[in-house]
Amino acid sequence: SDAESDRPWRITERRPFVDALLPALARRGFEGGDHWVWSFHNYNDCELGGDRVSAMRAQLAGRWRGRAAPDGDPLVYATEGGVRLEGVERRYGVVLPPARRRAEQAAMLAGAVARYERTPGVGLFTQYTVHADPQYDCGLLEPDGRMRPAFGAWLRA
After folding, report:
1. Strand order in the sheet with 38-41
2. CA pair distance 92, 44, nearest whole angstrom
């Protein structure tokens, strides 16, 4: 994950995970190769407008034995992400009316896709769910199937 959290019992943060995993892989003789890529969840980059992916690539550089991007540093895939409705509230620090919250979700998602298109080494960007999951609400559609503005943002991306 690209996460940094005040709840370490719920997630493993990227920095210590990478620093523990890569030496453990080396001790086991992991050879990697072009058929391996680094995969991560990127909710925080999407929701907070950050660039944790570049910091992660820098941490992996020269240590990860997987496929390289055209710039020579690791190729990474953002295999799970999106903008949760609660992430909109966290970013702005206020509870917005439902229509505005969904419009901001779309804008934040479009911004994240655009940032990742300009970020070297990101080979794949995916959306966690199409239909909203009530427990992890980042869907492009409402639970009943109605389109959210985020659906249109994803299509334009």
Report:
1. 38-41, 76-80, 122-125
2. 14
Q: Could you tell me the maximum CA-CA distance found in the chain, to the nearest angstrom?
A: 53
**Secondary-structure breakdown of the chain: helix, strand, coil percentages, each rounded to the nearest 5:** 40, 15, 45
d(CA 75, CA 88): 29
- Contact, 123 vs 76, CB < 8 A? yes
Q: pLDDT tens, 15-51?
A: 888 999 999 999 999 999 999 999 998 888 899 888 8
**pLDDT tens per residue, range 54-89:** 999 999 999 999 999 999 999 999 999 899 999 999
Q: Is 138 exposed, middle or buried (0-12, 13-18, 19+ CB in 10 A)?
A: buried
Intra-chain end-to-end CA distance of the chain, in Å: 22
